[in-house]
Write a structure and sequence with these properties.
heterodimer, A: 427 residues, mainly beta, four-stranded antiparallel beta sheet, 4 helices, 38% strand, B: 540 residues, alpha+beta, Immunoglobulin-like, Serine Threonine Protein Phosphatase 5, Tetratricopeptide repeat, five-stranded mixed beta sheet, 23 strands, elongated, disordered C terminus
Chain lengths: 427, 540
């Protein structure tokens, strides 16, 4: 009787060994894919609303993660922190806090990280006002910072050391004014909408165009940092206003206004990005003018400056320029521009979205192919947000860590590890 | 060569037999229908038939005369017997007595001699003188009283001492009274007195004439067998006598002549004359094969057609060289080349030494249709007995659908080992086969799903190698992983089911069993009135 039993065991063993199909192979391949897609964590309040507002964060100094970023929902309160280790494996956690609960479901549609990291300013605008909150990245505690009855208060936020003292200053934009909170305090230096530097946005703008209003801080003009705010309009020419902040005098003044070069560019200023595209050491300003153009303004900007280049998307029905970012992908002098079209049709999928990459001093060269979801889905709106994610595979983090394209979609956020430069992940 | 030679012998034997049968048929026809060359026999036969006709008509005295005429033509004792019977029927007891006595004189060893003698005694009593006279009773003697001895009865009148039934038909009413016998009218009695009432008259049992069988042959002296040679010789030609009234087959055999057969149906009122002219068999030789072992199977030239007889064996054989084989259990098979000359009788003696082998006998009802394998060589189809050399042997009894029975035996010389084998049915393989098919389906499905998984993996590897920006959420990861796990599960299930099927195929039922019994066989010389030989005995 024993012989048949042993024979049966051998047959089983031989069959299993002959199967030769190890499901773990897929895990190995999955861990090494060039693109990391992160979905919202469990407990996240809006699983299908995660990647339209994203904020790359400075990697933690303790080396606990190689990179991290925030993703927020635009239709309800929802905030999650995603951390990526040196091998490129992501973990995410839902950010919960009583302060967020106090938002009564209002979405956080604008985020900005303080200089040096460690803290994030969150903007939660409403039609009747808005609030600013701060998030401690160490403890993930959210604290209410400022409440305002000013409509759309917090629809755009930024952070920078505007007064040159090394401490961070918060910038918040409402539907009609710019507010600067010096040294992160509630000392509010504000400037209202004006003809010289328009700030007013109509509440009639499509809601998608009102979220995460474009506000950037950079040395766009000679003499310190400026705050650039995009102001799209329902009709006519949109504009970008640059404001100078005098911390000593505690004043904010209109420094410059860029008006859409073409009459049809009502959404000129929908998105802004600062980069050194020509590699001359000066910050250049890239202005998105959906649905089909983006303009490159070479810095330093001066009054009456004309765009150095116009990047035009010839396809119709898209939303080219709705999101922008600048980062150096190829390692060569000069940044590349990532210009998103979240409404682009890809692979026959409407509103699947794509991101085009342009390089060269005038961004005249398109890196083909652009970015899109490898398996695009209709309504995915890939490219709703684009950003540059610093990735520090080693600790301490180098002064200029590699920047990885970070692309948000309706419910996922894509991180590209092997696009142009060498894959920074450790194997 | 032997087969060809034997075929030739058979062919010639067949031709010779055909010729012999034709000759025999002609001779038989002559003998039976034309009464052969014996004129006296023919005349006797005619007289016999005339006598029988008279006898049937009740003309007994005439019948007696005709039987006597037949006897004068051919002095067969049966004719005298029939004469006596006819006279007895004719109430001529003196005559009857005379011819019964002549019958016994001519054929004192007749098979019915004792009965005839007893009949003569009864006749003698009936013919004896009456006892001393006694006064006649007042009453007249009863009608039908026995006639006085010495008176001649009227034909058809009751014979003294004969049963009423036998004489009832003759005692016709109104017949004339016999002289000397007191009629019923009351005639005065004279010298005749009735038998004492206390001593009943002797009774003659009913009797009939004898049929006759006359068997003759050319040449005379042929051995006659009745029905079968096994009953031994019945007589030799010429032969005449009576046989029971039932069909019988006559076999005539004479050395140098072809044997002949006839079927006859003896009857008491018939004379059957069988005359057979035997045809000479100069072509064939006559052999007699004897052995020290009676009853051994005799084979001539080839064994595959079976034994043609047993020792001692006699028969005709085509002239030439032949091989004689003798076989019998317990004895070593023997063979001998013999030379058969044509038309000559030869005797051949073959000696069979006791066997030096052992035997194994497989019995058991369940072994029917199986086979015995000894040391991996076919032994015989079970149940059977096989001769086997002494020593250790591996015994295997196998049968389809049954578990094998295996054992190791050490057999001695002259030992018969009988094994009663009880074979156990082997579990049916149908379920195992169906399980195997299911296993194959599972394994096949696993192979297919595994192939799909491999396709997904190959696609991913290819995309990565081609710098395609695939992400970790690519649907091929989940699908491929599910397919890989599914393939593993299917393989595993298939393997388990296959193992079950293999187990089922190799599964044994209860072991077949056997009970061995050893029998020592010995031989001893014996001597008897019929000869000497070896006796077989066994100790069990």
């Amino acid at each position: 009787m024993r012989a048949p039993i042993w024979l049966a065991v051998w047959v089983v063993a031989a069959a299993l060994s002959a199967a030769g199909c190890d499901w773990r192979d897929f895990d190995h391949i999955q861990a090494d894919t060039p693109v990391l897609v992160v979905s919202p964590p469990s407990g996240y309040s809006a699983p299908s609303d995660f990647g339209r507002v994203i904020l790359p964060l400075t990697p933690p100094t303790d080396g606990s993660a190689a990179a991290r970023y925030l993703g927020a929902a635009i239709d309800q309160t929802g905030l999650a922190l995603v951390q990526i280790d040196a091998k490129g494996q992501a973990s995410s956690q839902n950010v919960t806090s009583p302060a967020l609960d106090n938002l009564d479901g209002e979405a956080i549609t604008a985020m900005a990280e303080a200089i040096g990291g460690g803290e994030v300013l969150l903007g939660s605008p409403t039609a009747a006002g808005g609030s600013l909150l701060t998030l401690d990245l160490t403890s993930l505690v959210v604290t209410s910072f400022v409440l305002s009855a000013e409509p759309q208060f917090g629809m755009g936020v930024a952070a920078g050391s505007l007064h040159g003292l090394g401490t961070h200053d918060w910038v918040a934009v409402s539907g009609s004014a710019l507010h600067v909170f010096i040294d992160g305090t509630t000392t509010d230096l504000s400037i209202p909408d004006s003809a010289a530097c328009p700030l007013a946005v109509s509440t009639s703008l499509p809601s998608a165009e009102q979220i995460n209003r474009a506000v950037v801080i950079g040395a766009l003009m000679s003499g310190g940092l400026q705050v650039a705010v995009g102001t799209p309009v329902i009709s006519g020419r949109g504009s970008v206003s640059l404001f100078a902040v005098d911390a000593t005098a505690t004043t904010v003044s209109c420094a410059l206004m860029l008006t859409a070069p073409m009459a049809a560019d009502s959404r000129f200023g929908q998105a802004l990005a600062i980069g050194d595209f020509d590699g001359d050491g000066n910050a250049d300003l890239l202005v998105g003018a959906p649905p089909s153009r983006a303009y490159l303004y070479r810095g330093p900007l001066v009054a009456g400056a004309a765009p150095a280049a116009t990047i035009t998307d010839t396809t119709t029905g898209g939303d080219f320029g709705a999101a922008l970012t600048a980062l150096n992908l190829d390692g060569k002098t000069g940044d590349e521009a990532l210009i998103a079209d979240p409404d682009a049709t890809v692979g026959g999928q409407a509103e699947a979205g794509s991101v085009a990459i342009f390089t060269g001093a005038t961004l005249g060269t398109s890196m083909m192919p652009g970015l899109s979801d490898h398996a695009p889905n209709s309504g995915e709106v890939y490219g709703s947000a684009v950003a540059a994610l610093p990735f520090c595979a080693t600790s301490p983090c180098p002064a200029k860590p590699p920047l990885l394209p970070l692309v948000g979609a309706a419910s996922e956020i894509f991180t590209y590890f092997a696009l142009g430069q060498a894959d920074p992940r450790t194997k | 060569m032997m087969k060809a030679g034997f075929r030739g012998a058979l062919l010639l034997c067949g031709v010779a037999a055909s010729l012999g049968m034709a000759a025999g048929a002609r001779a038989g026809t002559d003998a039976t229908s034309d009464a052969g060359p014996d004129k006296g026999l023919t005349e006797a036969k005619d007289a016999f038939e005339a006598a029988q006709n008279a006898f049937v008509r009740g003309e007994y005295d005439k019948a007696a005369a005709r039987f006597l005429e037949a006897y004068e033509k051919k002095p067969y004792p049966a004719f005298l017997f029939n004469v006596a019977v006819s006279y007895e029927k004719a109430k001529l007891l003196e005559k009857a007595k005379e011819y019964f006595e002549r019958y016994l004189k001519v054929d004192p060893n007749a098979s019915d001699a004792a009965q005839v003698k007893a009949r003569l005694d009864v006749i003698a009593q009936l013919l004896a003188p009456p006892p001393a006279p006694v006064p006649l009773p007042a009453a007249p003697p009863p009608t039908g009283a026995p006639p006085v001895a010495g008176t001649a009865p009227v034909p058809g009148a009751p014979v003294p001492g004969e049963t009423p039934a036998a004489s009832a038909g003759s005692a016709a009413p109104g017949s004339a009274p016999v002289a000397g016998i007191s009629p019923a009218s009351g005639a005065p009695p004279t010298a005749v007195a009735p038998l004492p009432a206390s001593a009943p008259p002797p009774v003659l049992p009913d009797i009939d004439t004898k049929g006759l069988i006359v068997i003759d042959s050319k040449p005379q002296g042929a051995t006659i067998y009745l029905n079968d040679k096994r009953t031994g010789p019945f007589g030799k030609t010429p032969w005449h006598g009576s046989l029971e009234s039932k069909p019988v087959r006559l076999l005539l055999e004479s050395k140098g002549y072809k044997p002949e057969e006839r079927a006859i149906s003896p009857r008491p009122d018939k004379l059957i004359d069988v005359y057979i002219a035997l045809s000479e068999e100069h072509y064939l030789g006559w052999i007699e094969i004897v052995s020290n072992v009676p009853g051994a199977d005799v084979f001539i030239d080839r064994k595959d057609i079976g034994a043609i007889g047993r020792t001692p064996f006699t028969g005709q054989l085509k002239p030439g060289k032949h091989t004689v084989y003798l076989e019998k259990f317990g004895w070593q098979a023997t063979q001998q080349e013999i030379d058969v000359p044509p038309g000559t009788a030869t005797q051949h003696t073959l000696t069979m030494p006791p066997s030096q082998s052992g035997w194994i006998t497989i019995t058991g009802r369940t072994t029917a249709g199986g086979r015995l394998v000894i040391d991996e060589k076919f032994g015989c189809a079970t149940p059977c007995r096989a001769e086997i050399a002494p020593g250790k042997h591996k015994i295997l009894v196998e049968k389809k659908g049954m578990e094998d029975y295996e054992t190791d035996l050490e057999l001695g010389r002259g030992i018969e080992t009988a094994i009663e084998v009880q074979m156990s049915p082997r579990p049916p393989r149908t379920r195992a086969i169906s399980t195997s098919i299911v296993a194959l389906v599972f394994i096949g499905a696993g192979a297919y799903v595994g192939h799909l998984s491999q396709q997904a993996k190959d696609g991913l590897d290819s995309d990565i190698a081609n710098h395609q920006l695939i992400d970790n959420n690519d649907p091929r990861f989940l699908r491929g992983k599910v397919e890989a796990i599914g393939a593993d599960v299917l393989y595993g299930l298939g393997a388990i089911i296959a193992a079950t099927a293999v187990y089922g195929l190799l599964e044994h039922g209860p072991d077949s069993t056997g009970v061995a019994e050893h029998k020592a066989i010995s031989f001893a010389p014996v001597f008897g009135p019929d000869g000497a030989g070896l006796a077989f005995s066994g100790s069990f």
